[in-house]
Amino acid sequence: MRLIYDNSGVAAVVVPAPKFLAQLTGTDEEKLIHIANKDLPTGTKYEIIGDDVDLSDRTFRNAWTYTAGDNERTSEENP
Amino acid sequence: MSKVKIQGNASGTGVLTVTAPNTSTDRTITLPDGTGTLALTTGDDDKLPLAGGTMTGVLINKAPSSGSTTLQTFQRSDEAVAGEVKYDDTASTRGLQIGTTTQHDLTLKTHNTNRLQITYDGRGLSQFTAKAWCNFDGTGTAAIRDSHNVSSLTDHAQGDFTVTFSNNMGNTNYLASIDSYRGVGDTGIGGANLKSIAVGSIRFETVRDASTMMNPTFCNLLIFGD
Predict the structure, then answer these.
(1) Nearest-by-CA chain B residue for A39
(2) What pLDDT, on a 0 to 100 scale, did the predictor assign at position B46?
(3) Could you tell me how far CA B9 lies from the centroid of its own chain?
């Protein structure tokens, strides 16, 4: 699972470090929320996307945009 | 000639008995020339009754013949042993082990100054150990191959990445060494340009031949500092 958010008009993708994920407890979604709250600026709107979302074709990578979906969340202040 | 004086205690009611051992040899027990309380065996032979004081000589914690032996260096009031020096005689792991057995750090110091702190979660804090490192693939779906003290990689755009640390650096004066390679056999010169540096993350561009932004097959980040 990864995070996706809008960064000045281009979609940014946050990839968790496997070793860091392994240190966290909870569900995969809870772990991603923890990373979002930790690594994204507070107030950033983001979504969690599954590994089944294919991001491998990087043609026109700079033209990727993020459009908010139903599961959009907002990063909170890191506890 | 000095004298020996045995004195009772006005407050007590018990009787102190000095008992000879079962021996046919004359023995002499020489008392130390000092003031204090003698240590006794207590019957609870895993504890020394003395608190404080200074011992000279060699302290040997010896297993009867073979096998592991442990010197526990601290025991908290909740009976959890927090630190130990152990010789592990297990064939596969034989050697000396020094460390903590709880969620506490291990610190090595010289000249009364902390030189190396190994945190309970496995990070080495010193001027000579890497604070963080990361090896990632920036092609296709960006992915971290392996890392240390890194929580995530952000793929911003073509050749534009941020690595975020699990634990922040102490300041932004740290050393960041970044190399990028487009792929095995590629003759272009890979490199990186720093975009921003913060205590919690570092953002950089990966480039080929100094100017062309590229998504590297191999990108290596190495961090030293406070």
Answers:
(1) B164
(2) 47
(3) 49
Residue B160, pLDDT > 50, answer yes
Residues of B in contact with A20 (CB under 8 A): 147, 150-152, 166
The residue in chain A having the minimum alpha-carbon distance to the alpha carbon of residue B162 is A14
Task: Find chain B residues with C-beta within 8 A of A58's C-beta.
Answer: 139-140, 158, 215
Which chain B positions have a beta carbon within 8 Å of A65's beta carbon?
Answer: none
pLDDT at A54: 85
Classify the complex by whether its ipTM is higher than 0.85, answering yes or no. yes
Nearest CA in chain A to B157: A62
Query: Which of A40-49, A59-68, B48-57 is predicted with the least confidence, judged by mean pLDDT?
Result: B48-57
pTM, 2 dp: 0.77
CA–CA distance, B2 with B24 (Å, rounded to integer): 27
DSSP string, A7-62: ETTEEEEEEE-HHHHHH--S-HHHHHHHHHHHHSPTT-EEEEE-TTS-----TTGG
